[in-house]
Amino acid sequence: MKGFYHLAELPTAEIEKLAVRALHLRAGATPKRFDGKALGLLFFNPSLRTQASFQRAAGKLGLDLVQLQSGGNGVWGIECEDGALMDGGNAEHVREAAAVLGRFVDVLAIRAFAGIQSLDRDSRDALINGFRKHAGVPIVNMESALWHPCQALADWTTLDLFDVPRRAKLVLTWAWHPKPLPHAVPNSTLCMAAQRGMEVVVLRPHGYDLSDSVMNEAHALAAANGGSVSVTEDRARALEGASIVYAKSWASLGAWGKPELEAAQRAPLREWCVDASWMKLTDRARFMHCLPVRRNVVVRDEVLDGPWSIVIDQAENRLHAQTALLESQFASLERKSQVRAKNPVPLEP
């Protein structure tokens, strides 16, 4: 496996294999160790579950850990645009930063959220793709402007843990939040469920569609795997027969980089908060959220603390899914190293 940028880049059979391995690890299986190998973690944004689960996974696999934070007393500000005149706040270019870190570690994991200032830059996933281009080692995406594949892999594992059928109905619902949030989690949730072959319904108010490119990819994944994708703002119709309600807020594409317009657009939408009345419209659905979640803003206490919620198991599976993922990454590197050792490149005379 060469890096991990977007879940849908993997064949469905490979995702299924990783999910099975994650559940075995959760049940107590012993992971393979790679003593002497190094994992780099570079965070440009805050983290609780991602940081803790990757640290723990590295320990389980016997990896040396190089962990860096951006901002404050962390790493330099990094410029990712080629041809930039670097006379502003960024002191280092991704060309050098990535290349140097690639000499220090065997696999490098990056977290770099969308800035929600430039839709063009965020749509290009400029920072993480700069590292992918220049690091020279596999890059694991711990959440970028466009995708959160580690969360999606853990979510797939969670659906398997709770025996949610492949053809079950999953409702990805927009929820109110005091500020605009990136699209990485809803993008990845949508495509994960489509690739799993589920009946996926995106429930959102007017003005909160996901991007055309992501929707097109989701439709293609659903068609290839026996699922379906639809979009509606009819709450009762969406929730009827649902097995999973997955809540997440996201920014309006039409107001991207325009906070005043965004605030005005979402001001009348506070009733988009998942409560018991929502869940009672479903077929005894489970409630999922990637966390952190704002209680009584995105979802009511009665849901989070009630029989519907599986968010803690969902979060725990980040550890097991990422342990399985890293095990696969380092095993692949080990196999390549063994092949090179058996077939050395002859020295020039």
Question: Keyphrases for this structure?
Answer:
alpha/beta, Rossmann fold, 2 domains, four-stranded parallel β-sheet, 13 helices
Descriptive account of the structure:
- It is a single chain.
- The protein has 13 helices and eleven strands.
- The two termini are 34 Å apart.
- It is 42% helix and 14% strand.
- The chain has helices at residues 12-26, 49-60, 94-104, 119-124, 126-134, 149-161, 184-195, 212-225, 235-239, 259-266, 276-279, 301-304, 311-342; strands at residues 38-43, 64-69, 78-79, 92-93, 107-111, 139-141, 169-174, 199-203, 228-232, 244-248, 286-288.
- It folds into two domains: 7-147 and 317-333, Rossmann fold (3-Layer(aba) Sandwich), CATH 3.40.50; 163-309, 3-Layer(aba) Sandwich (Rossmann fold), CATH 3.40.50.1370.
- Helix 2 (49-60) links the parallel strand 1 (38-43) and strand 2 (64-69).
- It has 349 residues and is α/β, with parallel strands linked by helices.
- Helix 1 (12-26) crosses helix 6 (149-161) and helix 2 crosses helix 13 (311-342).
- It has a five-stranded parallel sheet with strand order 9-8-7-10-11. It has a four-stranded parallel sheet with strand order 2-1-5-6, sandwiched between helices.
